[in-house]
Amino acid sequence: MKIYLGLSFGYHDAAAAAIDQGGNILFAEQEERISRIKHDHRFPSNALASLKKILGENISIDAIGYYEDPTLKESRKISNIAKPINCDVNHILSPDISEKIAEHIKDSLTSNEHKIKEIIRDKITTSGIQVRDSAGINMFEHHQSHASGAFFSSPFKDAAIITMDGAGEYETVSIWKGARSPSNLEKLWSADLPFSLGLFYSAITSYLAFRVNEGEYKVMGLSAYGKPNYKKLLSSIISFNDGNAFINSKFFNFGPNANRLYTNELIKAIGFHPATNTSWVNDIDEILGPTSEASRLYCDLACSAQDVLSDIQSNLVKYALNLTGSTAICIAGGVALNSLANLQTDRQLNGQFYVFPPAGDAGSALGAAYLAYLKELSKGNGNPISHNGNKQIAIKITAPFSPYLGSSYTNKEYLQALHKNTNKESRRYKMLELNNQEEIVHWLASTLCSRGIVAIHREQGEYGPRALGNRSILASAYFPEMKERLNLAIKKREPYRPYAPCVASSLAKKYFGQDCERVFVHESHPLRYMASVVEAPMGTRIKYPSAVHYDNTARLQILFKDLNPLLHALSIKLEGDIGCGILLNTSFNLGYEALVGTPDSAVITSTWTDFDALLLGNIAISYT
Predict the structure, then answer these.
(1) Which residue of 13, 172, 294, 605 has the smallest Cβ count within 10 Å?
(2) Pairing of strands 557-559, 471-476
(3) What's this model's pTM, rounded to 2 decimal places?
(4) Domains of the chain with CATH codes
(5) pLDDT of amino acid 601
């Protein structure tokens, strides 16, 4: 079997992904799941060890793809250093000196790429995985990797692809046209720094005192409590219309040495000072909304930023459709994880919409693997890509995209973890080995119907930031106290934060209304992966408040038997047992941790929390 490896590391969210000679995904995992270091940027050695465990000891790598271009990235860093002093060395130095400096910079750029390649070869060799002598290490552009992962994992034969993030090498947004026969990506438009949707949203995140690259989803949640009173102001600062990307740089500091992302000019324009800490969120009531002047102002700013982002994404979609002639859109990059903006886009496209589930830099590892595969097969054949003279290379559609691509463990490994991490101070428990899915569903339903909270660690882990049932904490939405208990006793996080509901596809419209209809448009719709939201009927919010946010939206996961048969069956059983098939699903971790990856981390985390039961594979643990 031929194996094509994709890697992302060096900035944040390191990951490894592998595909075979047919373009089928063999494995993909984020390094943080095993290291437990959130957004771990280091070389994904642990992920490679898991890949070796799943694929076998004697695997060999046929080609390697790295998710960005180190030479271009180093070039941007050098450009940023030169800009503040507003000089061109060729004008202020003698020809001889300037030529030597230029040569030195060139050497620096190329040596950075060589260094990355050396790291890759050394680390893979250390892991015990063989790399064929003929295997090339290919460097691809950052947004090219995003686009590749999004399109080739999608259900579409052809589509427009939009990538949006903080920054790649230079680019921050790009539009591509993807085709399958032959497999091809063509970049049609892009915007460079300083225009950046990701950094704009991060600047507002920082303004509200949340951590950049961590608190953006909190800003999205808080936008529900505000009014768009600053939308006009922010729209005059950043906008996109018909191919024209505009940002007024005097309001932002997006350089590498900036101590904050916004300037004093933005503070003056907004009219109130940035938050110094996040204590203001304590003044938000789940029913009444903001109860202090500070919380009202900050929620209004969050709402305004969210509206501006959603509108710009909508304008990008319109432009991409016109540019490509396509009727479907794929999106990737960190901004693509904004599920509120995705609702607006999903409605705009009437469901012809795919959000790459691991949309951030971790997902770029898979994109790089696809690109390495295509480059290897097209050697000497030019472009468009063809193989063996007349046989066109086409990465086949595999729908639905399965996010369950990470590590898996045996019952023996689960039992070893329990023994290793249990002592006389540990929580007491009863253990039961279940024989099949029917028994597991019965045990889970019995626990949840008794007001229990259950953590699950089974089968392969999810690739991407969402816990979609294999590394999840579950509760029943039937009991109104569950949100408070999950927030305070389990996750130890802010009480305003909503929880993501999940429900069987046959029950979705009953509880969550017309928006659910679009999930049936194609087999990899965003609502399968918790990548968009729906607007729920008021009755659902009143009856099941834990499942619906303040603005009546719900970041819903619609369950299908083909992707997650266990949760699908559980939702249907709960509907029959207590008349409510809605599950509350949150990631198996504490609020400040990375998602659990190994059995050890699952057992250790369970000792720090107050949930009632733990499912490890088919081993049921009931705490007493």
Answers:
(1) 294
(2) unpaired
(3) 0.93
(4) 3-153+358-392 (3.30.420.40), 192-355 (3.30.420.40), 411-623 (3.90.870.20)
(5) 96
